[in-house]
Design brief:
The complex is a heterodimer.
Chain A (H helix, E strand, L loop, with lengths): L1 H8 L1 H26 L7 H19 L2 H25 L4 H23 L14 E2 L9 H5 L1 E2 L1 H19 L1 H11 L1 H6 L4 H28 L10 H11 L4 H22 L7 H19 L17
Chain B lengths: L1 H5 L3 H26 L4 H13 L2 H26 L7 H18 L5 H30 L3 H21 L24 E2 L3 E2 H19 L1 H10 L2 H6 L4 H28 L10 H11 L4 H25 L3 H18 L1 H19 L1
Antiparallel strand pairs in B: 1-2
The chains are: A mainly alpha, B mainly alpha.
Amino acid sequence: MSEFLDVLGSTALYATAIRLALPILFAALGEVFAERAGLVNVGLEGMMLMGAFAGVIGAHYTGSPWLGAVIGMLAAIGIAAIQAGVSINLSGDQIVVGIALNLAVLGITSFLARAIWEGGDVPKVDGFSAFSMPLLSGLPVIGSILFKQSVLIYVAIAVAVFSWWVLTRTSWGLRLRACGEDPHSADSLGIPVFAYRWKAMMICGALAGLGGVFLSLGQLFTFSDNMSGGRGFIALAVVIIARWSPLRALGAAFLFGAFEAFALRVQVTDIDVPAELMLALPYVVTLLVYAGVVGRSRPPKSLGREYSRG
Amino acid sequence: MSRALAGRGDTVMLIVRTGVALLGAALVGAIFLLLDGVDLAFAFEEILNQSVGSSFAIKNSLIDAVPITLVGLGVAVAFRAGIFNLGGEGQIYMGALAAVLVVLNLSGLPGPLLILLGLVAGMVGGGLWGGIAGGLRSRLGLSEIITTIMLNFIAFWIVSYLVRGPIQDPGGAGYPYTEEIPTKAELPVIGGMIPLGAVLLVVAAALIWVLLERTRMGISIKSLGAGEAAGRFAGLKVERTGFNVLLIAGLLGGLAGAASLLGNEGRLSDFFSPGWGFIGVMTALIGRGTAIGTLVAGLMIGFLTSGISGAQSAAGIPTATAQILLGVFVLFLIIVNTDVVVRYLRRAAASLRRAER
């Protein structure tokens, strides 16, 4: 028992939690934009996976993780464009399209990895390593939790705060939310619903792609088949748990990062818990928390419904 | 939603479309094979031979078709109700787990009884996993898209833990798998050609057809697919039907796991399923959500998979190219079915609009 407390009391746990929360956080923030505009984007998982894959390809061929990140985001935006085109313009069922894209990306990425590298053995690439903030990293406790992290951590927090501001404090955000609540009224007020939904989906693709990029370039420095491992779906649950708020998503994503980090940290102690069962923990927690909050959160009114004029 | 998928007289079109897809895949595949310097005529002949050329080849092809088609049937039933069963993978693992536990622990029983109990246990294991998703959906309103995916990972890690610990084969040199099942528990192969799993497949497809087209529950499944509001208005117990289809999907997924365990794999490992759960989703989509369509699509994919993997070494086809061939075939199958996908999406949208009013 005291060993469990040791794990819970270690700063390394929280530093790891933040690192592991990041991909989920980026994806969840993207999904908040999409869902606030009325689009359920089940393709989130595929967008993350594509971002992770294209990020590694980019970093491998350009030698720069930053260019890799840009390429990863662009590739994920490409997937988002398909999702947007079919679900917004062709009134396709958003969920069917998302599922199809997930399957397609899973197939394409593992296939391309094999086509490029013999046996799908993707080499290690340069990624985003931790960066010690001068002065601040020397602070006790929070120094090693907050200030010895990849720069993308600060980007993520900034994006969360900025998203909150944009969605709740600007007229652009108000119009975007109107498209998710009542697209007919929004349209009658002259708000171009399709354009807003497209923008929301592009933002979603970019952020989900960045989440995927961090998974490959910020954590493992390589790509493996299906490496998103359901995180896109965990992010979908995070959005519901966070009740469609970017700031609450920050907290909810950290919670999941913490459980994943706990599962990993316990392995390096003397505590005799089977590794495999610990690795199932984040998924169990997702189910439980999701079950606990679902009745009490109200989604945007027109979420998941296609919109057509007339 | 359901009408677009249920269209009768589609069987002829299905064969025509599949033929076109096969031809397209062969043409594109030929380019890759030529790039690899493979003797084209020999490669295609060999693929055909390994797929249907002998009773041994046919047996192997049918064995490949069993899990994806059974899972596909479960996906199709749920799909007709507008519910997305992405939990095939978890249902397969839980089904195979239950089956292996029963078969290894009751190995004193006579063979036929052991097989029967193994298959039933598989359905119970898979049904439990599908039922959890169904219960969470109908009781609490949780999206099955999220819950089935989470349950997949949970099932995988449970099996992974068990085959590396409590039920690991003590004589297996540390490999993550269980002991092999006794020979008498293996599914028989009729006449050296028809594995019992394939018989199960046809029976399951027939039962699903009857369920969807000839029963009251089939009507509620299809009207649920046409829009929940409409279903509720017509006095359907929507929650109940939602639970039922996920339970049925789970039973079929569990049966897929048990049938593969007893019919082919012989032991459970944590690399038991090479993604059958998701290939099953594609099988159901290609089969347009009907029982017969899914059966035909599953057999097609099974025969091609088996043909290509069998021909690989003889014809000198690199593994990557073998995967390209299969991928291209599935891609073509989806392309020739796009009109249905689009029609289906349009109908879904229309039914939603009706439901709103």
